[in-house]
Amino acid sequence: MTAIATTNAPAAIGPYVQGVSFGDIVITSGQLPIDPKTKAMVEDVAQQATQSLTNALAIVREAGLEANNIVKTTVFVKDLNDFALVNAAYEAFFNAHNAPFPARSCVEVARLPMDAKVEIEVIAVKR
């Protein structure tokens, strides 16, 4: 197992790494919607979803893969009433990258780190 680190995604805020590579598999840690350049988090839930996916893709790219290598995502949302907005941003993200939609789970959670509205983790596989 090899740790993946990139300045194009926020640094880990605890005792974990941004992602790991294990053979042909890349697994990211949950990505908060923090802009890695400004360290800020926007309030809009759709923009948070896009930023979380952008951060996850940066880690996947650091491992030499692209959006079309993502085979599974897990989306954590603070309020499932935001599902339609998150879903639209999610769809637009994968369409913009000409990538097929991966398998996905979406769960509502009581609270996310830094009071984010969204956190997303992905699994990518070399093809």
UniProtKB/TrEMBL annotation:
Enzyme group, top EC level? hydrolase
The reply to whether RNA-binding figures as a keyword in the UniProt entry is no
Of the GO CC terms on this record, one is: cytosol
Q: Which InterPro entries match?
A: RidA, RidA_CS, RutC-like_sf, YjgF/YER057c/UK114
What organism is the protein native to? Vibrio thalassae
What SUPFAM superfamilies does its record include? YjgF-like
Q: Which EC number(s) are documented for this chain?
A: 3.5.4.-
Query: Does this entry carry the keyword Disulfide bond?
Result: no
Name of the molecule in the record: Enamine/imine deaminase
